[in-house]
Amino acid sequence: MIFKFRRLLLRFERISDVHYAFKTLAYTMINLRHYC
Question: Which top-level group of life is the source organism from (predicted)?
Answer without folding.
Answer: Bacteria
